[in-house]
Amino acid sequence: MEALAAAAEAFIGLFIAGGEVFAGLVTGIVPLLIVLMTAINALIALIGPERIDRVAEAAAGTKWYHYPLRYIVLPFLAVFFLTNPMAYTLGRFLPERFKPAFYDSAVSYVHPPLGLFPHINPAEIFVWLGIAEGIRTLGLPLGDLAIRYALVGLVVIFIRGIVTEIMSGIMWARAEAAEAEAAEEGGA
Predict the structure, then answer these.
(1) CA atoms within 13 A of residue 19's CA, in its CB half-sphere
(2) Three-state SS letters, the chain
């Protein structure tokens, strides 16, 4: 009988813990995200979506100099000003074919600059602090490491953006070819 009661208590305990987590989200991150989304939408309305569209259009070109704008500058600005997780919303101004690569670049840059800009991703500052503690123990300077992380992060997001853009293009081409083939078979 005691085992059955203990099992019942453990079972309901899962739901109590889930409710506590949910309450924490409702009183913590959810209001923050709603306020951030409202503020960003208000800022976009003040600036004018057409101006933001023009910046995105400039980043959406296919010349070599558009790639750093699209996969270094835009992700850096998004992560710095909008922070994680709002940074990804800046991609909505890019053409559909660039959105996966922009997202990959932005999501890959929420960790590297934490040593310089902890506001970018405060929920995961513990990653940087763990590394920083090891560096301090060795007697090495943290500033150099923080700058190197941020700079290497920019190189990495640039490479990831280009690679993801290529991969997305291949996948879309395959999907379009499959759709065309299916349409031919269906029409014949």
Answers:
(1) 5
(2) CHHHHHHHHHHHHHHHHHHHHHHHHHHCHHHHHHHHHHHHHHHHHHHCHHHHHHHHHHHCCCCCCHHHHHHHHHHHHHHHHHCCCHHHHHHHHCCHHHHHHHHHHHHHCCCHHHHCCHHHCHHHHHHHHHHHHHHHHCCCCHHHHHHHHHHHHHHHHHHHHHHHHHHHHHHHHHHHHHHHHHHHHHHC
Could you report the per-residue pLDDT of 76-103, keeping only the tens digit for each? 988 888 788 878 888 888 888 999 999 9
What pTM, to 2 d.p., does this model score? Answer: 0.69
Alpha-carbon distance 42 to 60, whole Å? 24
Best CA proximity match to 88, nearest among 68, 102, 69: 102
Quick one: how far is CA 84 from the chain centroid?
6
**Count of residues for the chain?**
188
